[in-house]
Structures are given as structure tokens and as C-alpha cells.
Amino acid sequence: MRASKPCIALLMATLCPALMFGGTISGKVTYTGTPAKQKAIDMSKEPSCAKQHATPVMTEGVVTGPNNALANVVVYISAGADDANAPAQAVTFTQKGCQYGPHVLAMHTGQELDVLNEDQTSHNIHPLAKVNREWNKSQPPGTPPIKDKWDQPEVIEVKCNIHPWMHGWFVVLKTNHYSITGENGGFSLPNLPPGKYTITAWHEPDGKQTQEVTISGNETKSVDFSFVLKPY
Amino acid sequence: MRGNMGGKIFAVLVIVIALASAVPIVTHTWFGSNISLAPPEDISTHGSEIDKQLDETMLEAGLSFLAAQLVLGVFVWQFGGRKDGVLKNFPGGAKYLVVAALLLVGAEAVALGALGTKAWGSVYFQPASADALQVQAQAGQFAFYFRYAGPDGKFGGIHPEKIDEGNSNFFGLDPENDIPARDDITSGELVIPVNKEIHLMMHAKDVGHSFYVRELRIQQDFVPGLDLSVHFTATKVGKYEIVCTQLCGLGHYNMKAYLNVMSQDDFDKWLKAQSQ
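Output (C-alpha cells, whole complex):
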């Protein structure tokens, strides 16, 4: 066990700067204008899914919350952070009730992606990748998860070739510093060493916005994004 | 004669098989929907014509089949096992035999065609009446979608580049620039009022599909690039299955929708709820 002491010391030395200079960038994503109405999804052709929902599932192209908060926005560090390694832990994309969960899934390049089918019907997951290699795989009920990973950063639209209404996104990033807004629109990117960062916010129908932020020491900086939404 | 026992057994077998084959034909024709072999209940105004035509076809083809099998049976019974050459030639030889067979089969085909034209024409050669309810049907891999004009009574135009299935824009409507499209109603279920003529305008989004409702006695292909249509009047409230009957790809087995026939009142309520 003694031999491992230098290893621990080395590990501490590597981790300590991150712990000591734990700067944070946080803020809120809001919208102006009129958001498109969410529409009820008609799943009548797939009764095994339709009966899982007491009220109809709504489309998730634009999801908003109180005080003009905008959900499903991926906020991430697009330049300045040094984290080329993917986490060992896999991210999970679940097909349940003929719906993708989550609607927007972010991951690191090379990180394992597990696609689960929890329905009593077959799905055919089809990520429409353009930079990475596109694939589409059939997944009957009860089959093990489909495992895959993406080599290049890319925003990939995902659809099901059997159920046209199923729709989601893989946001593949070269960073582990990302946050996806919920219905309160809030995000937080902690554990940032001092430096100059480019923060990017991506929203499905509106594309990307960026801002520059400089972190010095153990501070929390506030950055807000606002998207202009159109009703159609 | 003892040497011909196998031939006689075969002759009896031929007749038994023919009679057994006749069972579904007879039940179809004379017992109607009381027997499970019969087609499902007809819920359309034109369906009785189709059913009548099918009955006539079945009866005529069935009787011809029975007669042919009986003749075959008699010949096998009578002459099976004989080894000493030709019995008797058809008058005029093989050439006339072929001509006679062609005339017989031809007459049957022409008769069926002539009789069937009436039933076919009642569905396909009559235009839909002017006050028929217009519904647009779109088939795509692997679902049907139906569109109603909404309160303004006008359909919006279709712009394939605007199709956005994840946001329920299955038809490619452009509500931003096209005002009639704004109140169009899209449904995954074909909801119609009972006893009202429906004019279904059909288009395929990608490949060939087919619209088949057994109870309506309608089966019509969707062909990419062609504007096809059918019209019908449903006479019974209920929920019926619409299935795709053209192999259209991997998910073909899963391509279906429901036909929901409602009273006019319920339909009006449904339509109103959809447009809110």
C-alpha cells in the first residue's frame, strides 16, 4: 500500500488546481417573441404506446417555462476548456411510450451511448449524422441496449423510422462542461480553472449563440442568453 | 378392372377435394356474415354491389371448377389404368381443342368483366358529390395522416421542404406565409361522420402504399406523384382498422391507422376540439 502514496500525491496535484480555482459560469436562458405552440401527438396507430399516456404527449420542438424561460437549450464551453477525455460513464437515451427521453441528450466525443427500448413495440433509431457516420438500427422489444459512440463533435437529429412523431437530438461536444436547461431556463457550469472561455448556447430551431467570459480565481460569473422565437 | 383400383380411389379423391373446396364458396354465397369464413360486415353504401359481384364471381368460378373436377373424376374412374392408346380425338384435333378452351375461358373472363363493370363503375366512375366532406390522406413510411380544411374550409398548400415530423408538421404546411394552412387539422385517425359522403384525396409522401378498410370494401393504392382519390359513405358508427396493403419497407407490418365513424354531432364536437 505504501507504494501507492506517490500515486495519490500525484492525483491530488492534478486535481487540486481544479478544486482550488473552482470558478463557475451560471445564468438563465430566456426568449422574446411568441413561441410555437406545442401540439398533441397522435399515437393512435401504436396502442401499446398511446395507453401509457393519460394525456397526449406534446411536441417538444420548443418547450418554455414561467418568466419566459426556455428549456432544452444546451449551454457549453466551446473554446478555452481543456478536457479532451470522455467520461467513462455512459449516457442513456431511452425509448419509452414512443417518446425519446431525454429530448436533447448531450455527450462527449467518444463517450459511450446506450440506447434502450422499454416499449412493447419495435423501434428503429436513426441518428441523421452528417459529420459522423449515419446509422439506423432496428430494436425489437426486450433486446439489449444498442451501444455506440460518436467520434466528431456534431449536433445530430434523431428520428425513429417506424414512428414518425419520435424526435430527439444528440449534441456531441468536445467538452464535459455542459448544462441543459430545464423549464426554469437555468444552467450552471462549475469547476472552471481561471481562463478565457467561449460559451455557446444551442437551441433546436434557432441554432447557436456565443459569448466570451473570463474567469479569474474562485468566482461565479453570470451569463444570460436570449432567443427570439417565432410562432411558426 | 381390379388393376384400376388405384385409379378409382384417385377419382373419388378428386371429387371429394372438389366438394370440400366448395364449402367456403357456398358459405360465402349463401350464409353471408353468419359464418366466420364470410367477409366482415359491410358498412358502406356501395359495398353491397361489390359483395354481390364477388358472390357472382365466386358462384360462377366455383361451378366451373366443380364441373371441371367432376369431368376429371369421371374420366379417371372410367379410363384410369388403360394402357391401350388413344380413346377418341377431340373433333378437329389439338388445334380446335385449344381454340375451344380459349373461347370458353375468354367468354368467362369477358362475362365477369362486363358484369363487374357496374360494381366498379359505381365506385370509380362516379365523381364525388359537391357537398362531400373533403379529407386529405397522406401515406408515408410508416403511418397514415389525415388532414381537414378547418373552419375556413380551405386546405393550405403543401411544401415538402417544410415537413417537420418531430413538430407534427407531417404534410409540409407553411403557416407562416400561407394563411389557409393555419387552421388545417391533422389527425392520425380518420374521423368521419356517419351517412355523409367522404371524398378522400390521397397522396404518398415517399413510396407506394395502400389504403384498405375491409368493412368499407375499399382498397386503393397510393402512388407517389399521382393525385388519386376515392369516395365513400360509411353507414355504421364504430372503429375500424385501416391497413397498408402494399409492401412499403421495414415497418410495413406496423403501418396502420383507425377509421373512426361518428355521429354528425360527435364529429362536429371532435372537429371543434381539434381546432382549438
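The interface with chain B takes residues 36, 39, 41-46, 59-61, 121-122, 124, 138, 157, 159, 161-168, 230, 232 of chain A (CB under 8 Å).
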